[in-house]
Design a protein that fits this description.
The chain is α+β, with helices and mostly antiparallel strands and about 240 residues long. The chain is about 30% helix and about 25% strand. Helix 2 (about 60-70) crosses helix 3.
């Protein structure tokens, strides 16, 4: 009888020790995993952090920007380059393209991209890079195009900002949302009217655009020395 009593006390002690050790190994802070509710109401974990926005594609992008532009009314941005600062006013009339640029700005997409196509007395084009980080940013945001919006009365005058079309399998010249060009040509480049969406204009810094346009380039119009966009930020 005494032996049974001792064994009971011994196992009770082991059980308490086991519970205590499990409590000590529990982390004090939760990890960044996101809980997912299954159909049977059980909970599982995924290593993917919760996204602040959906991954965009050709099916959901327009609906996303329809709502986004109503809640994000900013229309002035500052582009800080290796050559100085360019301030841009985005047009409210081209709401989807304005909203897209504001969205990408808030996602820090343009930071560390480059002016990758420069043609003096024509345009400077930016928003791309040969750095893999840019490709990873695009993959995270999603793959989508924007429709052209060319009937707002805007012309490709000197200083306007316009959106190039994606060249891959794109007969309707849908706009490539990650890139933009600024018309540097004196007198404008009006032969571009009707094909590309003008969605803003330079309000300060055309001297910087002229400096960028004057650099030496290779046969593909890429500057011999990379010209980086250090950051793009929203201003009042």
């Amino acid at each position: 009888m005494r032996l049974l009593l001792l064994l009971s006390v011994f196992f009770l002690f082991l059980n308490c020790e086991d519970k205590h050790s499990k409590q000590k190994t529990k982390p004090e802070t939760s990890d960044p995993k996101t809980e997912v509710i299954k159909k049977d109401n059980s909970v599982s974990e995924t290593s993917e952090p919760k996204r602040a926005f959906p991954k965009l594609n050709s099916k959901n992008a327009m609906e996303f920007f329809l709502h986004y532009e109503k809640e994000n009314k900013e229309n002035k941005v500052r582009i800080t380059t290796d050559f100085g600062v360019i301030d841009i006013l985005l047009f409210n009339e081209t709401k989807f393209h304005r909203a897209n640029f504001i969205f990408l700005t808030k996602q820090n997409y343009f930071n560390d991209t480059q002016f990758y196509r420069v043609i003096n007395n024509f345009i400077v084009q930016a928003g791309n890079s040969d750095d893999k980080k840019t490709a990873r940013k695009r993959a995270k945001i999603g793959r989508y195009l924007l429709p052209t919006d060319t009937k707002r009365g805007f012309k490709h005058d000197r200083g306007v900002i316009s959106m190039p079309s994606d060249e891959i399998d794109n007969p309707h010249k849908l706009a490539s949302p990650f890139e933009f060009f600024i018309v540097q040509q004196k007198g404008g480049a009006h032969f571009l009217d009707g094909d590309y969406t003008i969605f803003g204009k330079v309000i300060r810094g055309m001297d910087v655009v002229d400096k960028i346009a004057a650099v030496e380039t290779d046969d593909g119009d890429w500057p011999d020395k990379n010209i980086f966009i250090k950051k793009v930020e929203i201003i009042n």
